[in-house]
Amino acid sequence: MRPNRGIQLDELPEVLTAAEVVAYLRGIFGRNAVYDLLNSQRIRNRRVGQKFLIPRCALRDFIECRDEDAGAGAPR
Fold first, then answer.
1. Side by side, which strands form the sheet with 46-48?
2. What pLDDT sits at residue 66?
3. Which DSSP string do the residues of the chain spell out, in sequence order?
4. What is the pLDDT of residue 76?
5. Which residues contact residue 17 at a Cβ distance below 8 angstroms, ignoring those fewer than 6 apart?
6. What's this model's pTM, rounded to 2 decimal places?
7. 54 and 15 in contact (C-beta within 8 Å)?
8. Whole-angstrom Cα distance, residue 26 to residue 72?
9. How far is CA 59 from the centre of its chain?
10. Mean pLDDT in consecutive groups of 10 residues from the start of the chain, 76 residues
């Protein structure tokens, strides 16, 4: 998975909002898909009132896990 090519993951804030995650994953996942990932905890997060707060490391874990899944079952 190669998210938003203009921004490196390490350049993002330590804690992201849902809108920042949507912007970073733009072109891979749409807004609704990102919210589904957050609601299902596939991207780890904490809720504060109505807001999602996503640690950058949780986004990194999600991206790395997706990369590993992409290679699963692939012929060698």
1. 15-17, 51-55, 46-48
2. 77
3. ----TTS-GGGS-SEEEHHHHHHHTTTTS-HHHHHHHHHTTSS--EEETTEEEEEHHHHHHHHHHHHHHHHTT---
4. 41
5. 51, 52, 53, 54
6. 0.81
7. yes
8. 24
9. 4
10. 75 96 93 97 97 97 81 48
